[in-house]
Amino acid sequence: MRIDTPAGSILCDPWVNPAYFASWFPFPDNSLLDWETLGQVDYLYLSHLHRDHFDAAHLKRFVSKKARVLLPEYPTSELEDQLRELGFTDFIKTVSEEVLELDGGLKIMIQALTSPTDGPIGDSSLWVEYDGVRLLNQNDARPTDLALFTSLGHVHAHMLQFSGAIWYPMVYELPQSAKTAFGKQKRDRQFDRTWRYIDDLKATNVFPIAGPPCFLDDELWQFNDIFGDEGNIFPDQSVFMKEYAKVGGTNGVVLLPGSVSEITETSIETTHPTDVDEFFANKVAHLEEMRERKRPVIEAEKASWRHPEIDVLKEMKRRIEPLLEESIYLAKGVGGPVRFDLVGYDGDAVESIVVDFPGKEVRRYADEKVRYRFRTERALIEHLLFIDEVDWVNSLFLSCRFSAARIGQYNEFVYAFFKCLSEERLQYAEGWYDEHQRTTDAEDITLGDWVVQRRCPHLKADLTRFGIVDGDQLTCQLHGWRFDLPSGRCLTGVGHQIRARRAGEPAPTADGDAPEAAATPA
């Protein structure tokens, strides 16, 4: 998205090239736009380092290095470092949640989210104001509420994510009926969260952006939402408009590549390069045309992945074991061995390697039970090691080029660790979990027949806004996490106990004794 004002232009997250092992492509296709012109901007804003937002090849080739970078306040310097490597030199280092006035009366504010689960160590939203017209590019970010933005005045354009951007549940080795059921749950939660954000901000116009990707490799084609599968987590903008209408939404605006919306305090006028409804009615034909056109790009990427000279076990030991030794919270959170089954070039031979978190070592599989098992091509792991990739989540896992199985609940610490395969990232994640382990949330609220802590134990969402009680279960709609209220146990993942008691029961005493409903886990 490009924002143009009389005081300057801001290019946001230009993504054109395939991401995640050539798995994700932008849809609709934007590669045929006049990027030579679009890249001549005054300001550049990259919301976070996910490769469907941070397209290094495109930034290097097409975006003016004279552009001033609006830099979110992140805990590590990775975003700035990578942009400097691409040739950018002028950085405006913003302070999270502080309004900054730029030249000509253009005002901006960036809210940075910095938990280890927000993007690759950070995600952000951009608020812009010029001459009384305000825009919020929320993008992928999931703030606990939007009160900060509403306090700055009425917003006229709200851009936000509505579609899935993950590998769950498609890659899990489950019966198709279970995948469909879990996928439908996730799809419904995505829309529920979107409606909540829209209702919070109450902007004049709502723009569905930041998704979905499309999948053009024949091996991944089934992930496109073109088969009438109610469990597909990648609904497109036309589906958003239909679902939004069901909840009373009348102010949605869909943008295609090349669309332009001119927004004032009292009006909006949008022009499109082609008819929007007709475009989405012909979605399959557009995808098939893209697939043939992009096939050489995919094949060229695949040809670059094999590195038979790499001893995978040796290199994984060298890279990962020092991090295991340093890890306290993440290793304890994983709590068991994680197995990688690597399928050889012939498609048959399998080498199994275990990352043993309690034992602090990487070794060959020894026929033991494991918490998580991932199965992928050996070539993909070779490539990650060859390029010294520090984030296997923002590469292998988002590629969907693997299958997975697990014992028990979702474990966020598994993915947090494999997102932090560098000293800098690991130390930050360990410190974040340490701080949040020590922080207690003393405020309680009443939801239905229950008294619960106000902040969700997962990522501190305000349960007065996102909490839904159904019988003895509470669901936090921000991320869909569920809790059993009588026991306080998290039903979605490990390590997140909630404090809860029935309304009318005594609260925990000052010396720390608590009723059974709020008991801590063993």
UniProtKB/TrEMBL annotation:
Keyword Magnesium attached: no
Keyword Iron recorded: yes
Keywords tagged on the record: 2Fe-2S, Iron, Iron-sulfur, Metal-binding
InterPro entries given in the database record: RibonucZ/Hydroxyglut_hydro, Rieske_2Fe-2S, Rieske_2Fe-2S_sf, SCP2_Rv3818
Domain called Rieske: residue spans: 451-493
Family matches, as PROSITE patterns: RIESKE
Annotated spans, Disordered: 501-522
Domain of life: Bacteria
Molecular-function annotations in GO: 2 iron, 2 sulfur cluster binding; metal ion binding; monooxygenase activity; oxidoreductase activity, acting on paired donors, with incorporation or reduction of molecular oxygen
Protein name (database record): UDP-MurNAc hydroxylase
Species in which this protein is naturally found: Asanoa ishikariensis
